[in-house]
TrEMBL record, chain A:
Highest taxon of source: Bacteria
PANTHER family (UniProt xref): RSBT ANTAGONIST PROTEIN RSBS-RELATED (PTHR33745), RSBT CO-ANTAGONIST PROTEIN RSBRC (PTHR33745:SF3)
Organism: Brevirhabdus pacifica
Keyword hit for DNA-binding: no
Coiled-coil spans in chain: none
Protein name listed in UniProt: Anti-anti-sigma factor
InterPro entries for the chain: Bact_StressResp_Reg, RsbRD_N_dom, STAS_dom, STAS_dom_sf
Automatic annotation (TrEMBL), chain B:
A Pfam family matched in the record: HATPase_c
Domain of life: Bacteria
GO molecular function, one term: ATP binding
Alphabetical UniProt keywords: ATP-binding, Nucleotide-binding
Segments traversing the membrane: none
InterPro entries (UniProt xref): HATPase_C_sf, HATPase_dom
Name under which the protein is recorded: ATP-binding protein
Species this chain originates from: Brevirhabdus pacifica
Positions of the Histidine kinase/HSP90-like ATPase domain: 39-135
Length: 294, 135
């Protein structure tokens, strides 16, 4: 028998599978991570059983050499089960720490059994325990990775949702539209802005479009280029665009970058842009005589 | 060159568009923390935006590190990528030079916005840009 094999562990899993499973669930209860508030007994039992089954079958086929590598094809089953269970548990509000403890609790029953079975050969005992321990650790770390991946997906989704929210085209007056840009104008956003804007021009028969960049903190050459392209497309649609909200700081920075806005109309504030736009479509903003304050 | 007296503050990996925004806000936060004036901040962050965008778009990604020097207080940014490198740096710094269909003003513009600008590149060996500004 090679000193690094996990023969004894495999034997235990083969012969005492149900006992180990029961004791694992028992350990989870003792450590306070059983969460009967979130999972029924039968659900907990099913999850633990699926994991242990996948663990046992993975161990039988996986290479015992070197560092435990969960990316190996022999662990495919285990990975799938682990991801599924982590997903289920995370969705119901189990923390990353609890999820890792859930897996690590498997050590207790297996270690106890190993100690009994191998009490006459301490070398084999130490070797099996250290190898098994590393394997279960790798296993617990994987649940954390799955946990983080889930979180990243949530962040990505929220980001996508935010992006849709942040490019509304608003009609200010007959034939006048505005699109307030906020945050950054990356290529994806710029494409969305362009599409929304051009469609809205057709829909509202707009003649003037105010692109307000008060909420854009940095105008680098790429943002400037997106703005200029948008303005050019608006012009091709027969409308005029006004870029408003260029702060003195951004104006100076743009000059030094060497950005030339050409013949595009710009205004420092959306207020000035609105007055100009009204004028272009044949209206003027005037104070009401009776209520005018001087 | 970023000397040994500069203290590293943070590093942002540069992989995609999102990281460009992250790099910009990280530098912006550091400048705020050290009381940089608004114009100084906009100029420096815009320059950062240009160089990290180059690293992502043309350099296939890399990383950006921020350093701070005390007495006099200066902020330094180093941006490295592992891309194809730039064959002719003087040409790349000229306004209007572009290998993509962009304005071609990014590098030269960034240089005009900062106090020091240093670029090293080797064909096939990636590009490193270091910029700094006094606070």
């Amino acid at each position: 028998m090679s000193i690094t094999s996990l023969e004894e562990v495999l034997k235990i899993l083969r012969e005492d599978f149900d006992d180990i499973l029961q004791q694992w669930l028992e350990t989870q209860r003792e450590e306070g991570i059983r969460r009967p508030d979130l999972f029924s007994d039968s659900e907990s039992y099913r999850q633990a059983k699926n994991l242990l089954t996948a663990f046992a079958s993975g161990m039988t086929s996986a290479s015992q050499e070197g560092r435990p590598n969960l990316d190996d094809p022999s662990w495919a089953d285990l990975r799938a089960v682990l991801e599924e269970i982590t997903h289920e548990r995370v969705e119901r509000g189990v923390s990353a720490g609890e999820m890792a403890t859930f897996v690590l609790a498997l050590k207790t029953p297996l270690f106890m059994r190993l100690r009994n079975n191998l009490k006459d050969s301490p070398d084999a005992l130490v070797s099996e325990i250290s190898r098994l321990s590393r394997m279960i650790d790798a296993f617990a770390m994987r649940t954390n990775e799955v946990f983080i991946e889930e979180r990243e997906q949530i962040i990505q989704r929220q980001r996508d949702e935010m992006m849709e929210l942040s490019t509304p085209v608003v009609q200010l007056w007959e034939r006048i539209l505005t699109i307030p840009l906020i945050g950054t104008l990356d290529s994806v956003r710029a494409q969305e802005v362009m599409e929304n804007l051009l469609n809205s021009i057709v829909e509202h028969r707009a003649e003037v479009v105010i692109v307000d960049i008060t909420g854009v903190r940095v105008v680098d050459t790429q943002v400037a280029q997106h703005l200029l392209r948008t303005a050019a497309a608006v012009r091709l649609m027969g409308a005029e665009s006004i870029i408003s909200g260029i702060s003195p700081k951004i104006a100076q920075t743009m000059v030094e970058l060497g950005v030339d806005v050409g013949e595009i109309t710009t205004r420092p504030t959306i207020r000035a842009a609105l007055a100009l736009a009204m004028n272009r479509v044949g209206f003027e903003i005037r104070a009401n005589k009776e209520s005018a304050r001087d | 060159m970023i000397g040994a007296d500069a203290c590293p503050v943070l590093t942002v990996p540069l992989r995609d568009e999102r990281d460009i925004a992250a790099a910009r806000s990280a530098v912006s936060r550091e400048l705020d923390k050290r009381g940089a004036r608004a114009l100084r901040k906009v100029r420096f962050v815009t320059a950062v935006s240009e160089i990290v965008r180059n690293a992502v778009d043309h350099g296939g990604g890399g990383e950006m590190s921020v350093f701070v020097k005390e007495r006099p207080l200066e902020i330094w940014v180093r941006c490295t990528d592992t891309g194809p490198g730039i064959a002719d740096i003087d040409e790349a710094l000229q306004d209007g030079f572009s290998t993509a269909r962009s304005m071609g003003k990014g590098l030269g513009g960034a240089k005009r916005l900062v106090d020091s600008f240093e670029i090293t590149s080797r064909v096939g060996g990636g590009t490193t840009v270091e910029i700094s500004a006094a606070l």
